[in-house]
Amino acid sequence: MATYSYALFAHILGVTGLFIAMSLQLASMIGILRSRTVEQVRVWCGMHTVLLRIFALSFVLTLGAGMHMTFTTWGWSTAWINASLAGLLILAGLGPLINTRRLKILHREALALPEGPVPTSLRRRIQDPILWSSVLGMNAMAVGSIYLMVLKPGLIATWLVMVGSVLLGMSAGCILTLKKRSTMTEVVQPAEA
After folding, report:
1. Among 16, 142, 7, which residue's Cα sits nearest to residue 86?
2. Which runs of E-coded beta strand occur in the chain?
3. Which residues contact 8 (CB under 8 A, 6 or more apart)?
4. Is the pTM for the entire model greater than 0.85?
């Protein structure tokens, strides 16, 4: 039982690290979204290099401790464990494929631009609906996983929570970017006329 307590502590520490990294990523993306100058975009994008290390360390800690508790205590027949593991693996896979890749491209583009106001081409990349839907979907999935760990529902409720939380987060990302893009179009069109 003592090893379970240590594993639980390590697992909670890892999950806390994941939430810190996701919160900082979201804060930096809001900073990028609100940036008025290319210099501000560069500063906010610079945070993501550090966040990758926090994500990696927290992922290993969360997964390792979670696997220990699953093998020694819970077993694989528990729906919320399987769904939470699937969510963690999705975060680990899609994060680098979508978020990291798009944020690196955004950062490279900001570094290549001259100092001054954020041009429309960079603003469009900042308001990328796929990036925002991915980030908000992953954040919502993480909150859904915490819900599952606390309430430990059955199979159907578990998958409803996971799918519902992801769809809610992704929808919020689409709504946010579509609203921002329509505002940007309204501002740009009168100037071009």
Report:
1. 142
2. none
3. 65, 69
4. no
